[in-house]
Write a structure and sequence with these properties.
- This protein is of the alpha+beta class.
- Among the domains are: 33 residues; 125 residues, Rieske [2Fe-2S] iron-sulphur domain (Rieske Iron-sulfur Protein).
- It has four helices and ten strands.
- The strands form three sheets. The chain has a four-stranded antiparallel β-sheet with strand order 5-6-7-8, with no helix packed on it. Strands 1-10-9 form a three-stranded antiparallel β-sheet.
- It starts with a helix and ends with a strand.
- The structure holds FE2/S2 (inorganic) cluster (FES).
- The site of FE2/S2 (inorganic) cluster has 13 residues, from loops.
- FE2/S2 (inorganic) cluster binds next to loops.
């Protein structure tokens, strides 16, 4: 029994010494950590100045409140005026670019020398891309146009309503059916005939027969003088 007791005591002693050494190691590392924590210094330590509001007094105006306001109003007003002028110039340039050019404006009106059209003859001119018929009518043709019973027409219109001067008939050469160009001095009524589908117009350009629903259209025109006609 005695040898076992001795061996047991030796083992207990050994375990105790190991336990003590690990406890001592933990105590040493803890004391080192405490010592390190005590020596920690924050990078922000002593930087309270960064949170202070800067001193702007040396930039502050020395003038009175009225003077300062005047300068502010002047600056705002000047900038506003410059901005308005720039905007006006931009809009003006834009509108100038969008408006019709000189050659397009020239095409808007066409001047015709009436001396060049003998009585009883047709002339076709181009205006805004469309044909315009100008007929120098004879006295017989004017009589014939006035004799028609207006109430019997598909598109009732007196000859008087269609001309400014009885001897001059001016109208668009575009068939009111589907837009063909009628032929002059043709058809059953001595006026114009559209061969596309057989529409007949009389000497006043009124529809008399065929599928066209309306008379030939009268454009805007005027006589600035006895020998001049301006269309448009
Ligand atoms: S387009 Fe003239 S009759 Fe049809």
């Amino acid at each position: 029994m005695a040898p076992l007791t001795v061996a047991t005591r030796a083992l207990a002693r050994e375990a105790a010494s190991r336990s003590l050494s690990s406890t001592a190691a933990r105590a040493f590392s803890a004391s080192t950590a405490v010592r390190d924590a005590g020596s920690y210094s924050s990078p922000f330590k002593g930087e309270q100045k960064s949170t202070q509001i800067p001193d702007w007094t040396k930039y502050a105006s020395k003038g009175s409140w009225n003077t300062n306001s005047l300068v502010s109003y002047f600056m705002v007003g000047t900038m506003g005026a410059i901005t308005a002028a720039g905007a006006k110039s931009t809009v003006q340039e834009f509108l100038k670019n969008m408006s019709a050019s000189a050659d397009v404006l020239a095409m808007a009106k066409v001047e015709v020398d009436l001396n060049a059209i003998p009585e009883g003859k047709n002339v076709i001119i181009k205006w805004r891309g469309k044909p315009v018929f100008i007929r120098h009518r004879t006295a017989e043709e004017i009589d014939e146009a006035n004799k028609v019973n207006v109430q019997s027409l598909r598109d009732p219109q007196t000859d008087e309503d269609r001309v400014q001067k009885p001897e001059w008939l001016v109208m668009l050469g575009v068939c009111t059916h589907l837009g063909c160009v009628p032929i002059g001095e043709a058809g059953d009524f001595g006026g114009w005939f559209c061969p596309c589908h057989g529409s007949h117009y009389d000497i006043s350009g009124r529809i008399r027969k065929g599928p066209a629903p309306l008379n030939l259209e009268i454009p805007a025109y005027e006589f600035p003088g006895d020998e001049k006609l301006v269309i448009g």
